[in-house]
Design brief:
alpha+beta, 2 helices, globular
Amino acid sequence: ALQIVPETGVNTTLMNLTGARLARMSGSGATCFGLYETREAARAAERNLRSAQPGWFVQAMTTVSGDEP
């Protein structure tokens, strides 16, 4: 996927630079995600990524465990 769409590497690199504990491509690469230590860290990364890449869709989200009802 990186050979076909090198931007995927840019996405994960930028997320790592914003403090992601883990940054990966999802599926065939249409979506990339980063996991952050805190909600505040994710929101700060969202702001930084939007500023750096205004054409991207960036959204901080909260994950839930499979044990949630």
